Sequence to fold (214 residues):
Amino acid sequence: MRNDGILMHTIGFHALLQCYQWTGRPVVADFVFETSLGFAAMAREESCLLGLTFGHQSERDAIRALERALTAKSVDGKLVDGRPYRGGEVEFVRPGEDEMIDRIRRFADGELAEFDDLEVDGRHLTPFARKVVAACREIPYGETRTYGELAKQAGRPGAARAVGSVMARNRVPLIVPCHRVVPASGKLGGFSAPQGVAMKRRLLEMEQAGIVCS
Fold:
């Protein structure tokens, strides 16, 4: 543990979920950081992103939201990798200390940012859900697609409701840009991040403004 201002929290399994060791697998490390969209928390297994939550008023809120997201049942009713987590430590990351997190900060500041190259964990997803996630990641910055359009891309035309369920369980918002998926009615639909639809509107308007300024 460093003593130069980098914050490390030691926590128990039932309190906050932060660093894990799975037998035979790499260490999973968690980070908390501040952005223009509020406090965020991230879980990562080496370079593979397992979870991301943002828009929170405090570090603790962000970390607890991450815990809920990663321990909630997935579309096929399984936990991540089918294994429970064990508590450990979480690191507070300052600007300039982590390239992936700095990129998320820039996105939150309204800069045009893409995350196509980032690896996202899909072990908890069904084959259909993986196709939906892949289609969602193809939506360009500043654009939207309907749930029905993603269903068609995933090979199940008419399965808009199922696409909505996949998006509602998205563990890595912004990276998998579920805020860019909207109903065919033209309304914004739901959004599970803090502030709900207001945050979804803020993200879409921020991206539109970023395109105009670029």
